[in-house]
Amino acid sequence: MKTISKLALAAVLATGVSGMALIAPATAMAKKEEAKPGLKLSPDVLKAAQVAQPAIAAKDFATAEPALAQIDAAAKTDDDKYIGAALRYDLEQQKLAAQQAANPNAPLNETVLAGPLDVLIANPSTPADMRGRYTYRRGALAFNGKQYPVAVQYFQKAKALGYTNEDLDLQIVKAKMESGDVKNGLADLDASVTASTAAGKKAPEDYYRYAISKANGAKLKPETFAWLQKYAVAYPSPKTWRDVIVTFGLQQNGVVTLDETQKIDMFRLMRQTKSLADQNDYLEYADSVNRRGLPSEAQAVLKEGMASGKIPASNTMAKTLLTDTATAIRNDGPLAGLEKKATTNADGKLAAGTADAYLGQDNYAKAIELYKVALSKGGVNADDVNLHLGIAQAKSGDKAGAAASFAAVKTTPRMEQAQLWTAWMNAPTA
Which of 91, 155, 208, 269 could form a disulfide with 231 if both were Cys (CB 3.0 to 4.6 A apart)? Predict the structure, then answer.
């Protein structure tokens, strides 16, 4: 028997390039190698391997193929079979690389790697530090072949064997989700994100977007909303906030179905996070609040949109709305008269409505006062009022008061809206 260093071969397979030196058949060299821990090869196997290795390195596939066939025929021991599989794996990788170089757009049949990988994974002669790498590669083959449950098994085994790769956790998650196990995939991804955060490392933005897409696609509404919140907190940019709010309730098949009044509070959050994107956002927002009897807020939104250039100065609808809001503000007059009536009414409905008007004028102190009056008198939807009270408090700078008001909102979808406002309030840019 002759020997060859496992470490030399391992280094080769780590790169996919045949650079290991198979020992010469000289007696002195053989004795030197026998003294080292390594592979003990049958003479016929060693002889064929000495032909195959340089042929693979030179990309001389015509010479390498029959030499490998000789190894397969002569292999008797685990070491013999190991060297045969290792060289076969190397040869197939070289052939695939040559095919891709010749035609970059042609599909590659990587399944030819499965056979040698299976042998390498199972063979007791495979170095322990390489077994995890081979197992991971086998999982990647299964994933690319859309054999997702099989990929999960190989990826998890590779991890258990100590293989490390910064994308391995996400690959396990993706394999689980693609196999239909979305809930467990989301749980694994959440654990990965939590671990990264605890270690002071921010998880990539793509993790959040992937989780939201998969959860929403599987109609897992609680999970979708949870990831929307996480995303808004982790990456609180205007683009993020717009995506979060639209996915939550401003698109068809959103996480929740909102009525017009509830949508207004989402437009308010978009305004607060500077995520109103274009004239359509501004005009829908302004038209909605104007029809709800809040012309001051509608006018302010329109002016902001025009000042930013997102509403063209020539926009007919904007011009009409500005005229209508100006007329309504003039006809309504000061809110002081309504405020006085609100404090004497039997229920809190007028107080809540007047508070909404003050909120639209950015008069947060008055709005807060009247929302509290409305809650004390009753006869109103407490969740609506508490949400609006929280918004007024948050915008006035009273975060503690706002947190308490938002926490008092208990029913869907107002509760989730309150949680989004809380996420905005607690985000780094809030």
Answer: 208
* DSSP β-bridge partners for residue 4: 39
The CATH number linked to 408 is: 1.25.40.10
How far is it, in rounded angstroms, from Cα 241 to Cα 234? 11
Q: How far apart are CA 23 and CA 120, in angstroms?
A: 21
Name the domain boundary from 168, 187, 204.
204
Which pLDDT belongs to residue 39?
85
Q: Which of 187, 184, 13 is nearest to 86 (CA)?
A: 13
Domain end position, chosen among 51, 84, 117: 117
- Give me 135's structure tokens: 């197992």
- What residues pair up with 40 in beta bridges, in sequence order? 3
Element at 4 (helix H, strand E)? strand 2-4
User: Are the C-beta atoms of residues 351 and 371 closer than 8 Å to each other?
Assistant: yes
Residue with tokens 């949870």: 226
H/E segment holding residue 39: strand 39-41
Indicate the number of domains in the chain: 3
Per-residue pLDDT tens over the stretch 134-181: 999 999 999 999 999 999 999 999 999 999 988 898 899 999 999 999
Whole-Å CA distances, 392 to 168, 253, 275, 288, 360: 45, 30, 19, 19, 10
- The type of residue at 12 is V
Assess whether pLDDT exceeds 50 at residue 35. Answer: no
- Which residue range is the domain that position 166 belongs to? 127-204
Provide the pLDDT for residue 37. 55
Closest CA to 419 of 233, 285, 220, 194: 233
8 Å CB contact between 185 and 173: yes
User: Distance (Å, rounded) from C-alpha 322 to C-alpha 336?
Assistant: 23
**How much is the pTM?**
0.80
Average pLDDT over every residue of 179-194: 95
Cα-based distances in Å from 275 to 122, 229, 237, 279:
55, 16, 8, 12
Residue 149 contacts residue 178 (beta carbons within 8 Å): no
How far is it, in rounded angstroms, from Cα 265 to Cα 387? 9
pLDDT tens for residues 88-136? 999 999 999 999 999 999 999 999 999 999 999 999 999 999 999 999 9
- Say how far residue 129 (Cα) sits from the centre of its chain: 31
Residues 365 and 420 in one domain: yes
